[in-house]
Structures are given as C-alpha cells and as structure tokens.
C-alpha cells in the first residue's frame, strides 16, 4: 500500500508540469498567430502604398484595364486571389486613396486575365513565351509589374 501511495505522489507533480507545457505551447501558437496577422497587415499596407503610387493620370496604371498587370504581379508575388473577381474585391477592400475613374473593376480586366501569360509566374517574366497577339498586352503588364516590384522593394523583384 505504501508503495502505491509513493508511486501516486511521484506521478502527480507531472500533471501540473504537463499542463504548464500545454499552456506554453498554446500561448506560443497564439502569439505566432498574432505575429502572422501583423505581418499580413504590414504587407497589405505596403501593397496599398505601392498601388497608390502607381495609379492615376500620368502613372503606370492610368486606365482601368491596366489593373490586369497588377493582378498578374500580385497574384504571383503576394498570394493575391487567382480569381479575377476575388482579386478586384480584395483591391477594393484595401480602401485605396485613388481617383474613382481608376478603380479596379472585374469588367475592365476579365478578358485580359485569361491570356496565357497570366498563368506564368510574373517574377519569371523574362522567360515567358508570349504569342504575337498578346505581345502588346504582355509589354504593358510587364511595365506595371516592374513598377510594382520597384515600389514594393527588392523582396518582390522578378527572379533572375
């Protein structure tokens, strides 16, 4: 009997220790989640600033259809939605400080977003093969992608 009591007493301290380990692990997960949210919010602010600097009269996105270039670039570099409708919704949710005539709209980009080069990683644009019919649109989208890469900094530049 004494042996059983001693054995039980030895095991009891492990329960609070295990509880502390579990609590520590849950707190670490919680704080890691907060860190990820903060990092995502900072990325959203960076993208918003880059877009605001790129949209408007005399800037690289000076027509609604040119959002297709932003779609192409942000889809591949910032994990923006692949679906063009969802992309436009995300852009609208950024609440950008841009003139209304330059706002992103699905109707303005939907046909461009189906071009074959849109399925190629924009960071590897130098090796993308483009049909003659799409060459002009590719050049415009490439210009927009390079401008956004410049605005967002080196971490978002096309890979060599």
Structure characteristics:
160 residues, mainly alpha, elongated
Explained architecture:
The chain is an all-alpha fold. It has one domain (2-156). Helices cover 59% and strands 0% of the residues. The protein has 6 helices and no strands. It has helices at residues 2-11, 14-54, 67-77, 84-93, 106-109, 135-152. The N and C termini lie far apart (74 Å).
Describe the secondary-structure layout:
Blueprint: H1 2-11, H2 14-54, H3 67-77, H4 84-93, H5 106-109, H6 135-152
Quick description:
The chain has helices at 2-11, 14-54, 67-77, 84-93, 106-109, 135-152. It is mainly alpha-helical and 160 residues long. The model has no long low-confidence stretch (mean pLDDT 85).
Task: Indicate the radius of gyration in whole angstroms.
Answer: 25 Å
Structural shape: elongated
Could you report the average pLDDT, rounded to the nearest whole number? 85
Quickly give the structural class. Answer: mainly alpha
Put simply, the count of helices is 6
Please indicate the count of domains. 1
Q: What is the β-strand count? A: 0
Strand content: under 5%
- Which H/E pattern describes the elements? HHHHHH
> Mind summarizing the main beta sheet?
none
Low-confidence stretches: none
Share in helix? 55-70%
Distance from N terminus to C terminus (CA atoms, Å) equals 74 Å
């Amino acid at each position: 009997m004494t042996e059983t009591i001693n054995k039980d007493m030895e095991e009891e301290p492990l329960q609070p220790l295990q509880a502390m380990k579990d609590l520590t692990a849950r707190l670490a997960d919680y704080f890691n989640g907060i860190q990820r949210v903060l990092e995502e919010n900072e990325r959203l602010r960076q993208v918003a600033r880059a877009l605001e600097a790129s949209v408007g009269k005399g800037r690289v996105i000076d027509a609604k259809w040119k959002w297709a270039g932003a779609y192409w670039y942000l889809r591949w570099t910032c994990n923006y939605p692949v679906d063009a409708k969802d992309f436009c919704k995300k852009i609208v949710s950024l609440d950008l400080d841009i003139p209304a005539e330059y706002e992103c709209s699905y109707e303005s980009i939907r046909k461009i977003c189906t071009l074959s080069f849109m399925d190629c990683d924009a960071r590897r644009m130098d090796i993308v093969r483009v049909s003659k019919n799409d060459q002009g649109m590719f050049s415009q989208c490439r210009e927009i992608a390079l401008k956004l890469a410049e605005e967002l900094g080196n971490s978002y530049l096309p890979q060599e």
